[in-house]
Amino acid sequence: TGAFLEVRNLSVKFPTDDGVVAAVNGMDFTLERGQTLGIVGESGSGKSVTSQALMGLLKGTSAQVTGEAIFQGRDLVTLPESGMRRLRGRNIGMIFQDPLSALHPFYTVGHQIAEAYLVHNKATKKQARAAAVDMLGRVGIPSPDMRFDEYPHHFSGGMRQRAMIAMALICEPELLIADEPTTALDVTVQAQILDLMSELQQETNSALILITHDLGVVAEVCDNVLVMYGGQCVESGPVDEIFYDTRHPYTLGLLKSMPTLTTKSGRLNPIPGQPPSLLALPQGCIFSARCEHAALAGDGVCASQRPQFTSEDGHGTRCHLGLPQILSIRNSR
Ligand code: SF4
Ligand code: MG
Question: In this predicted model, what pLDDT tens digit does every residue of 216-271 receive, in sequence order?
Fold first, then answer.
């Protein structure tokens, strides 16, 4: 028997007038029940497109999705939309960046959450209302019993975000994919929502994919981390190893750009340069144009050869440098 979710060589290409955009290029990962996987990277690195492919949201578009995503024996890549529709909600839930796309403007917020509950539970209307009110309270909506009967446009952006999270969580999906779920919320509410997601995840032994550019959030809740760059996984492993035994120059750059006590003025140290064009990925390492350490690998190998992803004890990296070289880079910081 395989993993709960096993993704193999997942790629997504978008044909455009300017050529083919290679948004996701050969992603491999597995996820077990009860685990949280953080997918991190800058915007445009392919994080959201990966989640859209897993949710089947690219079906019926011009996107070309290849590879496999085996979820409990079913391949989400080839599953028709009708099958996907049956999985969405109870089996696979998603929290989007944009709450308006998830909430219907013509129904009250409470009604929509109660309906989501009723789809998956044998319950009376009264019980569904009680469950929805309870969940609205748990995501931090004040006076949930009164807010239940309000429409989405009565809610502020932050409140809508919480309502959408409540709607996803009340279905108790076995796999929850959350794409920047708390980005729009203030830090206190963000922490509260992340705690709630972890709590419900433990209660239901579900799996969580958390997509974020915020390494602080990753450190807080994730078991494993996958770092994306240019549509590829450049490093993946247990969260502690990614932070304390970092093996890829891009991850090192990301960690350096995190706000710390010394840069709490808000000044970050972003990695200089731009991500590669997904219309024409470089022949060599996709990070080579921005990597400070390419010379260390010697012979211009970084510019001419794409490094393979190599993994040891569950910690993998895609770089021509050997471990001793990476260690010397880390020690020189
Ligand atoms: Fe840098 Fe070369 Fe490693 Fe790419 S392969 S991350 S360019 S050292
Ligand atoms: Mg995104």
Answer: 889 989 999 999 999 999 999 999 999 999 999 999 999 988 766 454 555 556 78
Exposed e or buried b for every residue in 59-93, given b needs 16+ CB within 10 A? beeebebebebbbbeeebbebeeeebeebebebbb
Q: ipTM beyond 0.90? A: yes
Domain boundary among 110, 145, 171: 171
Domain count, the chain: 2
| Nearest-ligand number for the alpha carbon of 306 | 1
Q: Which ligand number lies closest to the CA of residue 52?
A: 2
Total-model pTM: 0.91
Residues with CB under 6 A from ligand 1: 249, 285, 287-288, 291, 293-294, 297, 302, 307, 319-321
**Mutate which of 233, 281, 302, 310 for ligand 1 pocket (most atoms within 8 A of beta carbon):** 302
Q: What backbone torsions phi and psi does residue 39 show, to the nearest 5 degrees? A: -110, 115
Structural domain containing residue 231 = 5-91+173-331
